[in-house]
């Protein structure tokens, strides 16, 4: 038997070339590269014994992840049917084509599990071109970026495969850069706050340059610190050492003095990507020229466009002919969305406008909902906001420019008038990125869909208890309380810093950054006041004294120790505070390495520039307390953020959402993160974030329902049809006055495999309407639920089987519709109810829905719920506590997840206890909830609100196209608005 260590390099070499094509028998090829026979047993031994960072094992993970997820790959299963991506059937088929046995497949599945989940794309039909380009043109920049992510950033294979897939989904929808006709496309990529959008657009830029795009303009936010941060990422991960040096000798002192990164730790450590000189000299490989630098935004070129040369090798052919494209450099501009640099760029482009007509260009607009969207009412003025006007001007000057916006808050972008071809509406595609692994988002800070009836609430089970610390009131009216709360947050920052130092000593981790963010106001004066308080607290904190240590020990015992023991996972946990003591001094030394106190104020470009040295996360360690507002609330990544102190109330949903800097990646210290956030009787920002971020999830869920094409290959929904969906699904989010310019309204709508939770009932003070809903509709429905059953389900959070007691029965479809018609809803929810009602009516009339199963969840014990006598039914009915969302929301929190799971068998047409089986039967889940603000006493009949969730039978949808039907928006009298008819088929 050969040495299994000798398999690594041959396996890596084989799979690097193989992963971009279909799998072929692996062992013969590996044996040929190894120079000796490699058996299947040896391969398995290698996979199980190799270091996790072994190059061969990493390449195997990456290849399997690509084959698992590929939508283009046709791999047959045992029945000679094509397998779906990201399924066990696909993995088994791939391993079989690799010539490996079933036992090896099962071992690989255990070590390298199938990654499930991907991007959601709503798109026009597009002309395929990229697959061919990928096979026939250079892939240098993407290949080297993928290698960098694997070997330097240590990304898991599933993430890299997902990035490959999502960036291809973007690039393939752009126009082929060699296309003879001019065609511009516009798209939008929706990610999560601080979730890796930069990595995605870096990958898109790499693939675009490989494919033939020769001008890439990356527009960042509105402040220089964000632009320079993005420039460095692009230089480090895309440009590479060779393109940054541009032929200069880094050892030359004169060159070194002017080099951006001569003191950058990552540059000095050799962690910038490298493109070998040999690869750059190959035919078809393209050099990238930097037009902007880490220190400098775009400036006028000294001789017009003398530095941006696009000389054609064959002057008889256009610039975008492959003969010419393969011999010209690509230029990359990283520019902030500020009028001055954008005007300079346009000014330098205009003199050769005739030549630019053949230039394939890509505009990447980061934070595309900020500054880019025109906010002036077109009915009142022909003028546009400055940045919107300048972006449009760039696209006019470079007619082959493709526009891709990136944002975590997409509503402003999808509410742009889709009928204005010159504006930035994402008319060609909207792509929603998957939630990345290791990301701390709303699901990690909030308790979403947790059934507290089935498990105790503790720091182990409740994210709120583990991570959230309430602060109260307004500093202007209670400065003493502000000081006390800031002191508690500062203690948490010091203690968590000491724990990081302990973990560095007892693991292989290094925590370069450790930060605390204070965001209470957008006013500079408030920042100064808060900074002065923190400086005072720092000076009197005496963290190393007996009094300070006693205070930190109490915090350790009460807060950090129980949370660590419940949530640290494999991270080292100090066995006692006594063991941790010695690390407090190390943490304090890091915190004061730049001065007597760690406080930095960041509230304007000037102040940022003055403190750039101390706030440069790329240059060195940053262990600081950052006090600021808007400048640190959008786009800019606060590295090492562990303690957040947030009291700012924002009036707009996207502004508030973007302020959530505590969302992101917290490898090695998720259990140490704390969010101090305002929660009192006037403002509950924690609940506001939960509502807003869940609405963001709802937007993604809504897109998921209508993704793909129908039986004729046409998209079910195109981007221009998204605005009506958003305005209906999120009734609290009122679009701008330009909503009347949307091209269509939804007339009828349903979905497959999803319950419609109809929880937007009239407001609490409209008791009469609630009483009528209950007596006229819901109680007559509940009369049919007379059979007691235990409905089985699998708990989605634990994977364990369970059951839900319920009363069940069947109601005729026409009778249900008559009762449903009598129900009253919040007036702003009718845009949801009416299309759903119309779809159900049509499906009932033609027999696709014949009856409904009424499912009335019951309490397990007398303590599970409140109870009220329902005389009409002669029963003591359970009344559940369900939170009515306040403020702008008009709905309740969702139906208990176990009730939905327990009802799913019915619409799927499966056998259900007490109900039988039917392909034409839908499911109705009815819950009675206590609609009082305070629920510390027993409810009465007048306190009850009834909530209804329904799911039509899956077989009721005859085709994907039948899911949704559009009608024409009626033009208001006097409005000069043109709309286009976009109808689905008759129902």
What's the CATH first level of the largest domain?
Alpha Beta
Terminal-residue CA separation: 68 Å
pLDDT averaged residue by residue: 84
Secondary-structure-derived class: alpha/beta
CATH superfamily of the largest domain: P-loop containing nucleotide triphosphate hydrolases
Largest sheet features:
8 strands, mixed
Strand order of the largest sheet: 1-8-2-7-6-3-5-4
- Report the portion of residues in β strands: 15-25%
Number of domains: 4
As a whole number of angstroms, the C-alpha radius of gyration is 30 Å
User: What do we call the CATH topology of the largest domain?
Assistant: Rossmann fold
State the helical fraction.
25-40%
* Continuous helix count: 33
Rough outline: globular
List its traits.
987 residues, 4 domains, 33 helices, Rossmann fold, eight-stranded mixed sheet, disordered C terminus
What's the gist of this structure?
The protein is of the alpha/beta class.
Topology:
Layout: H1 8-18, H2 26-34, H3 40-49, H4 55-69, H5 88-97, H6 102-111, E1 120-123, H7 130-136, H8 140-151, H9 157-171, E2 186-190, H10 197-211, E3 215-220, H11 224-245, H12 253-258, H13 265-268, H14 277-280, E4 288-290, H15 322-325, E5 330-336, H16 339-349, H17 353-356, E6 361-366, H18 386-397, E7 401-407, H19 411-414, E8 429-432, E9 439-440, H20 442-445, H21 463-467, E10 468-471, H22 479-506, E11 513-519, H23 524-541, H24 546-567, H25 577-591, E12 599-602, H26 605-610, E13 622-628, E14 641-646, H27 653-658, E15 664-665, E16 674-678, H28 685-705, H29 722-729, E17 744-749, E18 756-758, H30 767-782, E19 787-794, E20 801-812, H31 813-821, H32 830-845, E21 851-857, E22 866-870, E23 875-881, H33 897-903, E24 921-930, E25 944-951, E26 964-968
Parallel strand pairs: 2-7, 2-8, 3-5, 3-6, 4-5, 6-7, 10-16, 11-13, 11-14, 12-13, 14-16, 21-24, 23-24
Antiparallel strand pairs: 1-8, 9-15, 17-26, 18-25, 19-20, 20-21, 22-23, 24-25
Helix pairs in contact: 1-2, 1-4, 3-6, 4-9, 5-6, 8-10, 9-10, 10-11, 16-18, 22-23, 22-24, 22-25, 28-29, 31-32
């Amino acid at each position: 038997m050969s040495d299994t260590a000798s398999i690594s390099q041959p396996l890596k070499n084989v799979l690097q070339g193989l992963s971009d094509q279909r799998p072929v028998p692996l062992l013969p090829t590996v044996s040929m590269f190894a120079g000796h026979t490699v058996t299947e047993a040896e391969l398995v031994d290698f996979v199980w014994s190799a270091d996790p960072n072994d190059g061969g094992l990493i390449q195997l993970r990456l290849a399997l992840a690509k084959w698992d997820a590929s939508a283009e790959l046709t791999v047959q299963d045992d029945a000679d049917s094509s397998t779906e991506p990201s399924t066990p059937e696909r993995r088994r088929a791939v391993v079989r084509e690799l010539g490996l046995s079933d036992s090896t497949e099962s071992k690989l599945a255990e070590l390298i599990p199938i990654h499930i989940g991907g991007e959601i794309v709503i798109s026009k039909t597009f002309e395929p071109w990229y697959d061919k380009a990928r096979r026939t043109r250079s892939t240098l920049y993407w290949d080297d970026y993928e290698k960098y992510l694997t070997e330097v950033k240590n990304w898991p294979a599933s993430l890299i495969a997902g990035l490959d897939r999502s960036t291809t989904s973007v690039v393939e929808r752009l126009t082929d850069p060699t296309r003879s006709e001019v065609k511009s496309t516009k798209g939008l990529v929706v990610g999560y706050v601080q979730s890796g959008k930069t990595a995605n657009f870096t990958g898109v830029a790499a693939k675009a340059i490989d494919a033939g795009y020769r001008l890439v303009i990356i527009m960042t936010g509105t402040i220089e610190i964000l632009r320079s941060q993005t420039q460095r990422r692009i230089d480090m991960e895309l440009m590479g050492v060779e393109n940054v040096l541009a032929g200069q000798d880094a050892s030359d002192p004169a060159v070194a003095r002017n080099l951006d990164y001569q003191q950058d730790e990552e540059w000095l450590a050799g962690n910038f990507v490298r493109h070998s000189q040999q690869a750059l000299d190959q035919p078809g490989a393209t050099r990238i020229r930097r037009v902007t630098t880490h220190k400098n935004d775009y400036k006028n070129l000294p001789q017009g466009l003398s530095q941006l040369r696009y000389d054609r090798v064959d002057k008889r052919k256009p610039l975008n002919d492959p003969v010419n494209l393969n011999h010209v450099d690509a230029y990359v501009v990283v520019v902030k969305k500020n009028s001055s640099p954008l005007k300079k760029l346009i000014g330098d482009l205009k003199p050769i406008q005739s030549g630019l007509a053949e230039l394939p260009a890509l505009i990447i607009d980061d934070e595309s909902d900020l500054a880019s969207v025109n906010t002036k009412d077109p009915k009142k003025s022909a003028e546009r906001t400055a940045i919107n006007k300048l972006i449009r001007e760039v696209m006019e000057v470079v007619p082959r420019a493709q526009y891709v916006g990136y944002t975590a808050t997409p509503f402003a972008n999808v509410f742009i008038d889709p009928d204005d071809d010159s504006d930035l509406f994402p008319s060609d595609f909207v792509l929603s990125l998957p939630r990345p692994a290791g990301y701390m988002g709303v699901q990690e800070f909030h308790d979403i869909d947790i059934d507290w009836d089935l498990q105790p609430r503790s720091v182990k089970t409740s994210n709120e208890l583990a991570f959230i610390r309430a602060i109260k009131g307004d500093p202007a009216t209670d400065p003493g309380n502000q000081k006390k709360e800031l002191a508690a947050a500062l203690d948490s920052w010091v203690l968590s810093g000491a724990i990081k130092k302990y973990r560095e000593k007892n693991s292989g981790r290094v925590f370069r950054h450790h930060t605390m963010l204070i965001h209470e106001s957008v006013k500079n004066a408030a920042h100064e006041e808060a900074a002065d308080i923190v400086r005072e607290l720092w000076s009197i904190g005496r963290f190393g004294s007996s009094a300070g240590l006693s205070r930190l020990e109490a915090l350790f015992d009460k807060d950090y120790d129980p949370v660590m023991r419940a949530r640290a996972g494999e991270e080292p946990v100090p066995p006692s505070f006594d063991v941790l003591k010695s690390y407090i001094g190390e943490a304090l030394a890091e915190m004061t390495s730049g001065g007597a106190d760690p406080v930095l104020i960041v509230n304007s470009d000037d102040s940022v520039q003055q403190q750039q040295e101390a706030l440069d996360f790329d240059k060195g360690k940053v262990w600081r307390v950052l006090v600021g507002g808007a400048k640190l609330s959008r786009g800019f990544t606060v590295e090492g953020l562990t303690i957040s102190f947030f009291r700012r109330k924002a009036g707009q949903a996207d502004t508030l959402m973007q302020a959530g800097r505590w969302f992101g990646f917290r490898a090695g210290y998720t259990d140490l993160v704390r969010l101090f956030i305002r929660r009192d009787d006037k403002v509950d920002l924690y609940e506001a974030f939960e509502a807003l971020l869940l609405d963001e999830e709802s937007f993604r869920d809504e897109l998921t329902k209508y993704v793909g094409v129908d039986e004729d290959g046409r998209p079910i929904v195109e981007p221009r049809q998204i605005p009506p969906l958003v305005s209906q699904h999120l009734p609290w989010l009122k679009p701008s006055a330009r909503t009347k310019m949307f091209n269509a309204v939804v007339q009828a709508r349903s979905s497959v495999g999803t319950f419609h939770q109809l929880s937007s009932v009239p407001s609490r003070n409209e008791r009469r309407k609630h009483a009528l809903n209950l007596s006229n509709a819901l109680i007559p429905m509940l009369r049919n639920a007379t059979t007691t059953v235990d409905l089985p389900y699998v708990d989605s959070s634990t994977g364990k089987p369970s059951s839900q007691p319920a009363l069940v029965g069947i109601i005729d479809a026409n009778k249900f519709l008559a009762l449903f018609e009598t129900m009253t809803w919040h007036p702003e929810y009718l845009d949801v109810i009416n299309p759903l009602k119309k779809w159900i009516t049509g499906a009932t009339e033609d027999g696709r829905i014949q009856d409904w199963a009424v499912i009335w969840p019951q309490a397990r014990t007398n303590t599970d719920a409140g109870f009220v006598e329902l005389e009409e039914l002669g029963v003591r009915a359970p009344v559940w506590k369900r939170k009515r969302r306040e403020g702008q929301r008009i709905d309740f929190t969702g139906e208990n997840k176990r009730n939905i799971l327990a009802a799913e068998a019915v619409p799927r047409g499966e056998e259900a206890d007490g109900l039988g089986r039917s392909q034409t039967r839908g499911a109705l889940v009815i819950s009675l909830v206590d609609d009082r603000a305070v629920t510390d006493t027993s409810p009465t009949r007048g306190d009850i609100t009834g909530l209804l969730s329904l799911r039509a039978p899956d077989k009721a949808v005859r085709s994907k196209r039948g899911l949704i039907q559009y009608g024409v928006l009626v033009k208001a009298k006097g409005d000069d608005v043109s709309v286009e008819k976009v109808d689905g088929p008759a129902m």
